[in-house]
Amino acid sequence: MAWTPADPDLTEDWPRLRTTAADCPGGPPGDPQGWATGPGGLTGAGLEVADALLRRIPTRRLIVLGAPGSGKTMLLVRLLLAVAEERAPGGAVPVLLPLASWNPASQDLQAWLVERLAQDYAGLRGPAPACAGSMNRARALLEHRLLLPILDGLDELPSTARAMALAEISRALPPGQAVVVSSRVDEYRQAQCPAAGVPVKLAGAAGIELRPLAAGETAAYLSRDAGGEHTVSAARWERVLARLDSGTPVGQALRTPLMVFLARTVYNPRPGETAAGLPDPAELCDEDRLPTPAAVERHLLEAFIPAAYRSRPGTSCRWSPQRAEHVLVFLARHLQHTLQGTPDLAWWQLHEAVHRRLHQCLLAASAAFAAGFGALGAGLGTGMGIGLAAGFLGWRTGGQPRRLPAVAFQWSGTGFALGLLWAFGFGLILVLLARSAPALCLLGGLLLGPVIGARLGHGVVALAGQETRSPDLTSAIGPATLVHRDRRVFGRLTLEFGFGYGLVLALALPTLLNGATTALFRIAVLALIPAFSVCGAFAYAAWGHFTLTRCYLTLRHRLPRDLMAFLADAHQRGVLRQVGAVYQFRHINLQHHLARHPSVPLAMPPD
C-alpha cells in the first residue's frame, strides 16, 4: 500500500505548515529537525504512515485520500497500531472513529467525540479526577490533548454537511492538536468548494493519496490465490492479467484491494472446490457487457454474495444464497436509511427497524400476555380484561429501549434508598385508598405500579440496590456473548422487579383485601405483577426489545429465526467483519451496493 502527496490545492502550503507549527503555544508539536522539506517528503508505503504523521508533518495533521476501496480504513488501522506502539508515557492515545454517525449541523465536534468515546469505552463514562473539574473522563482527555482523533470517512457524511464538518474540525481542535481525516478524493474536493458557501480547508493539514495497486502485485496475488502459477486455476486468469496494465475497464477496475478481493472470491476455488463449476474470470474482459470500470465493479459486487454462500464439498450452509442476500439487503437498508448510514450493525439497535408505534404495540402485547396468562385461572373473560389493561400500561410505561445493552450489576446505595422510598410511598398510597375507596385503590395500583417500576432511576433496580452496567464496546467481547449477558440481566431484572412489586403488595394486602370486590381485586393485583415485572425489565435491558423485534421481522420473513447465528456465519464467510461488539459489512461500498439493491420479494421461504 503506497501513497504520494495529495494535490497541492487540497492541502495547506508547506511553508505555512512550518510557520503554523513553529507558532503553536508551548512550541512545535515535534522536532523541527525531522520535518520534511516539502510535500514530496511524505511519499511512502506501509507503516511509514506513522513516521509521516509523527515526524515529517510539522503540524501532525494529515488527510488520507483515496479512491473507493483503495484501503484507506486499513491504512488508518495500521497507523493507529503503529502510533500506539510508539506512544511514550503521557502521550496522546490514537482513537479510530467513523464519522458517519456525526451530524455537524446539530452537534459540535467536541460533544460528538465525548458522546462516542463514552459509548465505546466504558472506562471513559465516569467522572474525571477532581483536578480535571466537573467533566467525565472522555472530555477531560480531549481537553488535555491526550487523544489523537483518527476520523474515518468524511465522504460518508451527507454532501451538504462535509464542508461544515471540515470547518468544525478546524475550529474545535486547537493549534498543536494532531488529527487524521480520511475521505475519497472527489468528495473531499467538493467539500472544500461547496456549492453554497465559502471554500474551506482543514487548517494546518498535509495530505497523502493512496496509489492504485501495481499490475504486478494484482497478478501475483490472483495467481497465488488460485493455486500458484502454471496451475489450471491460475491459467483461467491469463486474459484478465494481460489487461491489468492497460486502460481497459477490467484493468482500471482491478486497481483497488476491495475489487481484487471480490474477484478472488468470485472466481477462485476454495479448498475442496474445483474450478470446473465456477464462473470464468475471462467474462470480466467482455466490454459489451461491462463497458466501463464502474460496470465491472457492480458486477463483482453483485456476484460476491452468491459466491460467498455457494455450496462447497464437505460443508453445509443453513441459508441459501438467495435467502442470505435477502437478509443482507434488509440489514444494509436498515443501516443506510434508518440509522443514517452508520457502518455499525448493533443488535441492540434492531428495534429501530420497525416503526416506534409498532414497537410499542409489540411491547404492549407482551405485557398483556404476561398478565392475561396469570389471570386465566379466574376465567377467560377476566383474564382477557386484565390482559388488555396490562397491555395499555405496557404501551404507556414500558420505557424507551436502552441505548446500550446491560452486561452486569453493580451496587448502588442511592438506588437502594430510592427503591425503599418508592416502595413505601406506593404501599402507603394503596393502603389509604383501600380504606376509603377500594375501586380507587385498584385504579391507583393499575396506574402507579408500572410508572413507579419504570421510573425508579436510570438503570436502578427496585429494592435490589443495584444498577445495570453497560459494556466497553471496543473490547474483545463478541456480539453473541453480549446478547447472552444482556439476556441474563433481563431475566434477573424480571425476577427482582417481580419480587419488589410482590413485596409491596404483600405488605398492603391485609388492608386491601376488604369489601365486596376482594376476589376480583386479588386476581387483578396478583395477575399484574408479571406484567409490571416485564415492563421494568424492558426498561433496563436491551434483550427484550431485540427479541420482540427479531420475532416480528422473522414472521415477516425479513430475518432468519436465529439472527445471531446468521451474522456469525456471515462473519466467517468474509461478508461481515467484527469490530468489538458490533458487526460491519466488509466494506462500506458493499453496504451501499446492497442498500441500493432492487427490491427482494418479502415472501421468501423461511430458513
List keywords for this structure.
single chain; 607 residues; alpha/beta; 7-stranded mixed β-sheet; 3-stranded antiparallel β-sheet; 23 helices; 12 strands; globular
Q: State the strand order across the main sheet.
A: 2-1-7-3-6-5-4
Beta-strand content estimate: 5-15%
Approximate helicity band: 40-55%
Tell how many strands the DSSP assignment holds.
Answer: 12
Radius of gyration: 29 Å
Low-confidence stretches: 376-399, 449-464
Q: Count the DSSP helices.
A: 23
Q: Distance N terminus to C terminus?
A: 41 Å
Structural class: alpha/beta
Largest sheet descriptor: 7 strands, mixed
User: What is the average per-residue confidence, as pLDDT, rounded to a whole number?
Assistant: 80
Overall, the morphology is: globular
